[in-house]
Amino acid sequence: MTTATSRHPLVWVPSLYFAQGLPFAVVMIMASIMYKQLGISNEEITFWTGLLGSAWVFKPLWSPFLEMVGSKKAMVVLFQLLGGLCMIATALTLHLPGFFTFSVALLTLVAFASATHDIAADGSYISNLSSQQQALYSGWLGAFWNGGKLFVQGGVVVVAGKLEASIGVAQAWSTVLGGTGALLIALGVYHLWAMPRTTNAAPVAAGSVANVAETLKDVIVTFFQKPGIWLAVAFIILFRAGEGQVQTVGRLFLLDKTELGGLGLTTEQMGIAYGTFATLAFIGGSILGGYFAAWRGLKKAMFPLIVAMNLPNLTFWYLNAYQPTDIYLITTVLSIEMLGYGFGFTGLILYIMQVVAPGKYPTAHYALGTGIMQLGFVLFQMMSGTIQKWLGYHDFFIWCVVSAIPVLVLALIVKIPDKQPEPSDSPASAADPQAAPG
């Protein structure tokens, strides 16, 4: 690769990953809250927002072809601008009859633009920084990707809640969604100046498409030829069974009316509770989970990690059963749930990294593993609204805890190494914050 500029990484790395986290949070988190306040049923919300998440499931399949594009910077800027424009277009549809169909279609474009942008952004990070720099700035990368999510959950949602009372629900969400899209466009313009211009070292040959397709085929074939891979795939998918259901329905429960079994929070209250303190608890739990796994070793840590991730789902059962009104108590309960979620989720990331990924294509197989991980979340999210409709909130939250039983059984069966593999055998994951959940 060739680099025409050499701006300091802190000029562009934090803003690049903030721009990566922003549309992801809009599609995977904010959209469900917005649709709930616009009167869409839980069943439709969970199905369609879950389906939107498939963009991040399948992005490994087209990521090799982006290597054929001359400039990674151009791809980053293009998909930031495209994502921002589609958000603004989505905002405009909220005032139309049949807005749900139009807005879902446009958010699909946002999702695929965001997923493709992630590939280009990670490629820019890896191509422009040395291995030492990649490690040095990986903390900034993760912090600002989560910062983009926190901005949406704890900032944009709160502003929408404040505006709902004064200008109406549709206008409030149209305003904040349009504003978020404008911010993403502004970041695209900024990165046109700030990011280093990097071009691929190898020119695009006439047979490149066929060669890339052949390599991709080999990556997929060798992945599914790994010993015990189908048991591993089942483990990865079932790992998120409880979480995939409770993360979306839980937010809808917080907003639902008390006579329907919900907690009756305002958008602003939920944004403050879930988008600030609970998110920080998740980040803290993730850090603690990593230390716990390093201390115990993944094999011994896995069972406790799964329990820690799923048992706190009972906090939602508590909130439904006792209907507390103290926002400080509610925030504390949600923070406990997110602390356990972050703590336990570390086990899945390490399992993919240390068990599934090593081999001929460690980085590509890690990407496929995280795609399967996202598939598990999407599948259970899509069905969660229907299950909640059948069971009601009370039994649904108990069901989410019960859903962890299969993966607990599999944790006793799947092959997990006693010790961590050498760094040379593990995939480079510094530039993959999307291993974090949606």
What does this structure look like?
- With 438 residues, this protein is an all-alpha fold.
- It has 16 helices and two strands.
- The chain is globular.
- Name the overall outline: globular
What level of helicity do the residues show? over 70%
Number of helices: 16
Distance between the termini: 33 Å
Secondary structure: number of strands: 2
Features:
mainly alpha, two-stranded antiparallel ribbon, disordered N terminus
Q: Layout of SSEs?
A:
Blueprint: E1 2-3, H1 9-37, H2 42-52, H3 54-62, H4 72-93, H5 99-128, H6 131-167, H7 169-194, E2 198-199, H8 208-224, H9 229-239, H10 241-255, H11 267-296, H12 298-310, H13 314-322, H14 327-356, H15 362-402, H16 405-411
